[in-house]
Specification:
alpha/beta, Rossmann fold, 2 domains, three-stranded parallel sheet, three-stranded antiparallel sheet, 10 helices, binds glutamic acid
C-alpha cells in the first residue's frame, strides 16, 4: 500500500441502512490497513442523514460486525445526525457568498424540462451522477423564492457550480493510486447541497466531516472517485483542509455483480450465524492473512 505519513488519519463511513456485507468489510479493512501501515489512526463515522432509511439497530449492527471482525476504531464515533448545525453553518457561509440557491423542482419537473430541451438521448447533458440539473430555479427572482420558502414549499439547495468553480480557480488533489488530479466539478452541474428531505447532502456532510474529524487520507470505493471533484471545490469554498485520496476496487459476488444492500447481499451477520469465523470472512473478502487486524 502506498504510504501517506505517520500522522495518517483514515475513516470508514457506512450508512446504517442495512447490515454490512463483504464489500463493507473490505472497505473498512482498507481504511484500517492504510492507517495501520502508517502507524496512524482509524476513525468511524455513521452517515445517517437519510432519516427515513437509517435505523438504530443497523448502527448497532455496524459496531457489532466490525468488532467481531477484529477492527478497532477510535472513539468518539461521529454520527452525522448529531451535527446538523455544522452543515447549516456551512450552508449559511455559501449563502453569504451567493453560491447556493433554493430549488423547488420535483423529479418530474426536471425530467419534463430535459425532455422539452429536445436532446437526442445520447446528447442529454450528463454528469457522474446522471443528467445534470437543467437550471430551472437558478435564476428565480430571490424575492419570489423567499415567498415560496416562507409558504412552506419544499426546496433543496443547489450549488451554483460554474460561478463557484470560477471563483475558486484551478484546483487539484492527490490520489495515491492515480497521482495528481485536476478538479472538474463543472461536470456535475448544480449539485444538491441540502436535500428536500434532509438539511444537508452526501457531498456537503462528507466533505465537512472529513475536515472536522481531521481525516488526512480518505479511502473509499472507486464508485465515489468522481465525487471528489465536488468535494475539492467545497473544500476551497469553505476553507477546509484537502486530504489525500485512495480508492479501492469494488468486491463482486459470485454473480459478478458488486455487493449492494438492496440485493440482500450476504451479510457479515448471516455469515457469522452460519458458523463462519472472522478469518474465513476475511478470506472471502480477499484480505490476505498477514494483513488482517
Ligand atoms: N457513506 C458512504 C457509503 O456508505 C461512504 C462515504 C464516503 O466514504 O465518502 O457509501
Amino acid at each position: 500500500m502506498p504510504a501517506t505519513s505517520a500522522a495518517t488519519v483514515t475513516r470508514f463511513a457506512p450508512s446504517p441502512t442495512g447490515r454490512l456485507h463483504l464489500g463493507h468489510a473490505y472497505s473498512a479493512w482498507f481504511a484500517w490497513a492504510q492507517a495501520a501501515r502508517d502507524g496512524g489512526r482509524f476513525l468511524l463515522r455513521i452517515e445517517d442523514i437519510d432519516r427515513s432509511r437509517c435505523r438504530p439497530e443497523f448502527e448497532a449492527g455496524i459496531f457489532e460486525d466490525l468488532a467481531w471482525l477484529g477492527l478497532v476504531w477510535e472513539t468518539p464515533v461521529r454520527r452525522q445526525s448529531d451535527h446538523m448545525d455544522d452543515y447549516a453553518r456551512a450552508l449559511d457561509d455559501l449563502k453569504a457568498q451567493s453560491l447556493i440557491y433554493p430549488c423547488f423542482c420535483t423529479r418530474k419537473d426536471i425530467q419534463r424540462e430535459i425532455a422539452a430541451a429536445g436532446h437526442a438521448p445520447h446528447d442529454i447533458p450528463r454528469g457522474p451522477d446522471g443528467p445534470t440539473y437543467p437550471g430551472i430555479c437558478r435564476n428565480l427572482d430571490p424575492a419570489d423564492a423567499e415567498v415560496r420558502m416562507a409558504g412552506g414549499e419544499a426546496f433543496a439547495l443547489r450549488l451554483k457550480t460554474d460561478p463557484a468553480a470560477a471563483r475558486a480557480g484551478p484546483l487539484t488533489w492527490r490520489d495515491l493510486e492515480r497521482g495528481e488530479q485536476t478538479a472538474r466539478p463543472e461536470m456535475f452541474g448544480d449539485v444538491v447541497l441540502a436535500r428536500k428531505d434532509a438539511p444537508t447532502s452526501y457531498h456537503l456532510s462528507v466533505t465537512l466531516d472529513d475536515h472536522v474529524q481531521g481525516v488526512t487520507c480518505v479511502t473509499r470505493g472507486e464508485d465515489l472517485f468522481a465525487a471528489t471533484h465536488v468535494h475539492r471545490l467545497l473544500q476551497a469554498l469553505l476553507g477546509l483542509a484537502t486530504p489525500v485520496y485512495r480508492h479501492h476496487g469494488l468486491l463482486t459476488g459470485p454473480d459478478g455483480k458488486r455487493f449492494a444492500k438492496r440485493d440482500k447481499a450476504e451479510t457479515i451477520e448471516s455469515l457469522r450465524a452460519s458458523g463462519r469465523t472472522p478469518g474465513e470472512v476475511w478470506t472471502m473478502a480477499g484480505v490476505p492473512a498477514e494483513a488482517r487486524p
